[in-house]
Design goal:
With 191 residues, this protein is of the alpha+beta class. The chain has one domain: minor pseudopilin epsh fold, CATH 3.55.40.10. It has helices at 11-14, 22-73; strands spanning 77-81, 98-102, 116-120, 127-131, 138-141, 157-163, 168-174, 180-186. β6 and β7 form a beta hairpin. The chain is elongated and about 110 Å long.
Length: 191
């Protein structure tokens, strides 16, 4: 009889190879598919709410920038709904984006030669922007940092950002002194 060897036995004799069968892999894939189908609508809604909030925050940032630029430059700075060829939209469709510019001739319209400070692209098509009638076309800050229309009257207003699928919206409110703030509101009707 041969003495026992100190060599390890081959793997086939001492190891059991483990792995997934095709059936087990298909069950795991089916469970993952069901899970993803349940999570996807919630993620879509969350993405739309995030888009909505980010657009309102971007607008708030533009108002804050306009006010600080008016103070820094000691000139009227205007924010208007974006129209064709980097001009102001006469109808006031803020969902097309907005322009921030130095309003050298104090008329609330961007004309050739007026410095463009910021240009924002259109909001995503699912986001709607509604404004109060007092600020339909433009919103201006004068050199003292307060809001004022072309004829010198104070300006105040609200820009409402909403998505048809969400019961909540965001609004940017500028008071009579021109100080803007953002807040959530119940968006019962988003058109």
């Amino acid at each position: 009889m041969n003495p026992p060897s100190n060599r390890p036995r081959p793997c086939a004799a001492r190891c059991k190879i483990k792995g997934l069968t095709l059936l087990e892999a298909m069950v795991v894939m089916a469970v993952l598919g069901i899970f993803l189908s349940l999570v996807a609508p919630a993620m879509t809604g969350m993405r739309a709410r995030h888009q909505l909030q980010s657009q309102a925050e971007a607008f708030l940032g533009s108002l804050v920038l306009a006010r600080s630029e008016a103070l820094r430059r000691q000139q009227r700075v205007t924010l208007c709904a974006r129209g064709a060829a980097d001009g102001c939209d006469p109808i006031g469709r803020w969902d097309q984006g907005w322009l921030l510019f130095v309003d050298a001739n104090n008329n609330g319209l961007r004309e050739a030669g007026e410095v463009l400070v910021q240009a924002r692209e259109a909001v995503p098509t699912v986001v709607k922007v509604n404004v109060t009638s007092t600020i339909k076309h433009y919103y201006s800050y004068v050199s003292e940092g307060r809001s004022a229309s072309a004829n010198g009257a104070f300006m105040a207003g609200t820009w409402r950002f909403c998505v048809a699928t969400s019961p909540q919206g965001w609004q940017v409110v500028a008071n009579a002194l021109g100080k803007p703030r953002i807040e959530e509101y119940p968006a019962t009707k988003c058109t």
